[in-house]
Amino acid sequence: MELEQQFKDFIYQETMEDGQLKNYDSMDKLEQDLKGIMVWPLADHYLDTFFYEENGNVYLESRDGPISLMTDQEYSLEKMNENHYKLTQSGNNELRGDYTLTIHYKYEAGKWVFGDRMDNVESDNGGQLPDTATSLPLMLVVGGAFIVLGALFMIRRKHVSV
């Protein structure tokens, strides 16, 4: 659970009023530290999603954070192999509704890191798309065919009358 706390500390950074990070003055340093607890593609995802650099300063995006692991609630931990575990936790919160958090822990370079961290939110919004199908594409094809036939007819007529 130490790894989860390190993740929270990165995502929920102490900031100034304008969102500027207090503990980091470059994206390079933040990237280096974040890649110390997760695989590089995942670190790049979190950097691109939650942080940005402007005028030499690093800022936290003003947005909802990722779903957190609730260590006081039920979760399952499945051993995939000696160097890979998968944690799954289902829950509900007011903002997102029902969700499933899936975290893959991997042992790489002599330490445990996040291999993947996904929060899948179930949604009742949307449903079926409205029936907006039209016959316009068919009409375009038929119209194009008539144009081609007309052009062929005109060319053939010129050849016959000559």
From TrEMBL:
Residues 123-159 form the Gram-positive cocci surface proteins LPxTG domain. It is a peptidoglycan-anchor. The chain crosses the membrane at residues 136-155. InterPro entries: LPXTG_anchor. It comes from the Bacteria. This is Gram-positive cocci surface proteins LPxTG domain-containing protein. NCBIfam families: LPXTG_anchor. Signal peptide: none annotated. Keywords: Cell wall, Membrane, Peptidoglycan-anchor, Secreted, Signal, Transmembrane, Transmembrane helix. The keyword tRNA processing does not apply. It is found in: Secreted, Cell wall. It holds the Pfam family Gram_pos_anchor.
